[in-house]
Amino acid sequence: MPAPIIKVDAISKSFGAFKVLDGLSMQVMPGEKLALIGPSGSGKTTILRILMTLERIDGGHIQVDGDQLYHMERNGQLLPADERHLARMRQKIGMVFQLFNLFPHKCVMDNVTLAPMLTKGVARVAAEKRAMELLDMVGLADKAKAMPAQLSGGQKQRVAIARALALSPKIMLFDEVTSALDPELVEEVLNVMRKLAAETDMTMLLVTHEMGFAHDFADRVLFFDRGRIVEEGKPDEIFRHPKQERTQSFLKKIIAAGHRV
After folding, report:
1. Residue partners of 139: CB distance under 8 A and separation at least 6
2. Could you give the CA distance from residue 161 to residue 83 in angstroms, rounded to a whole number?
3. pLDDT tens-digit series, residues 198-211
């Protein structure tokens, strides 16, 4: 058995008096496609932001690709990670956000090439060649010189996916990437993610309310509630035969709201 590419051990995280993660432990295997579902405020997005080092943990340990994420080993001791260590770890992980976060004053090409050039020292010619390959993959090769304001929401999100892929991460995190889109634009973004899942061996973690897509996309589904994983299993197990009462009640509400599972 290969070692987990992500190993989360008893982490906790609070925002003021609200404990958003409560002794959470989980493992993700290399190449695994993982869907995180659950009610708002259950900790799903927080765990992605912690893996991306956008939020710090209050306690516990995380390993990513064999290295401690928030700690460094020095003379047999674990010390808090410095910024240099965190910067190195971030290069292993890409994240696509709910609200695109494109630079509005830069064209599509510049949005995709900026990070590889700044963080990895990739030459402009090489960065632009790779960017065109990625834009072609997400169906936007003809928009390389367009500004974000000229794009639809679905196009912006596909540029954001290309930008995250430009750093060649081992792990991709997707946080509610379709929730800010008009319904008719959702499918074009999901199609790109289906292609990624089918054609790459990249490890992918997805937070979503698109239950039908989560069912089709994931190797494994984790149901979060109140900062803990209440239930996990194969998509059919979770969506068709959930064991826990809390999972059953959540999915009934989702179905009642008209969502496919």
Report:
1. 158, 188, 192
2. 25
3. 888 899 999 998 88
